[in-house]
């Protein structure tokens, strides 16, 4: 099957593949006229419209991300879905890229337009503990919710990420903040059989596991994002 990356420009192809040598050639051509024509923020010619920085960040290509930032790539250039390089780095668990982008003053509050997930929710989908910690250290609201009124604590309890749940409790996350169906982090952790999270949440919760909404209601929830969002 044909690789869609083959249709990218040389710059975008180098960015997604992590080819730092090719990337530097694209950014510093020998001909001055070609140099003036380089658009460092050019996007993929598809429905996603992703920049070189976005592509490198999604794959965790740290040297490429650093080079693009040094060449003044737009740190918050979002794709069609509203996701920035920092958002996708957190979604895919790229800790060092996340750290670098935050150092470059990336905005940690971008939102996925379809799901309403903020950057902190992106870090929670697969339990990326260090990305979550970096966002909290950057001042992101620990109780930020999405369109389903899921907080980071709710999402981590839902998926059984005990380490992330512990961190959020240490940062004083609201244990009793329910989603739009009235379900709390403790209730959803219990429903899904995540005993480690239940043990962490129970001492702080004002609800009991018996107050979980019925499974019939839980089926109304919006589907989750793919396990690996991006390239």
Mean pLDDT: 89
Give the name of the CATH superfamily of the largest domain: Ankyrin repeat-containing domain
List low-pLDDT spans. 214-227
Largest sheet: none
The CATH architecture of the largest domain can be named as Alpha Horseshoe
- Structural class by SSE content: mainly alpha
**What best-fitting shape do the alpha-carbon axes yield?**
elongated
- Report the radius of gyration as a whole number of Å: 20 Å
So how many helices? 14
CATH topology of the largest domain: Serine Threonine Protein Phosphatase 5, Tetratricopeptide repeat
Q: Multimeric state of these chains? A: single chain
Give the number of DSSP strands: 0
SSE order: HHHHHHHHHHHHHH
The percent range for strand residues is: under 5%
CATH level 1 class label of the largest domain:
Mainly Alpha
Report the end-to-end length measured between terminal Cα atoms: 16 Å
């Amino acid at each position: 099957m044909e690789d869609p990356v083959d249709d990218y420009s040389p710059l975008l192809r180098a960015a997604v593949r992590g080819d730092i040598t090719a990337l530097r050639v694209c950014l510093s051509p020998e001909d001055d006229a070609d140099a003036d024509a380089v658009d460092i923020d050019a996007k993929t010619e598809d429905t996603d419209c992703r920049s070189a920085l976005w592509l490198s960040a999604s794959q965790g290509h740290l040297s490429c991300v650093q080079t693009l930032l040094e060449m003044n790539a737009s740190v918050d250039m979002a794709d069609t879905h509203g996701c920035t390089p920092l958002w996708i780095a957190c979604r895919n668990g790229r800790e060092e890229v996340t750290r670098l982008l935050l150092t470059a003053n990336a905005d940690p509050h971008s939102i996925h337009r379809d799901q309403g997930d903020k950057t902190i929710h992106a870090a929670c989908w697969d339990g990326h503990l260090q990305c979550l910690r970096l966002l909290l250290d950057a001042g992101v609201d620990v109780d930020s919710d999405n369109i389903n009124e899921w907080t980071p604590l709710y999402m981590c309890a839902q998926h059984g990420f005990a380490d992330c749940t512990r961190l959020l409790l240490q940062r004083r996350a609201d244990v009793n903040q329910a989603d739009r169906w009235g379900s709390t982090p403790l209730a959803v952790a219990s429903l899904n059989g995540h005993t480690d999270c239940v043990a962490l949440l129970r001492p702080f919760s004002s609800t009991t596991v018996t107050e979980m909404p019925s499974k019939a209601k839980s089926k109304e929830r919006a589907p989750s994002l793919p396990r690996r969002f991006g390239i």
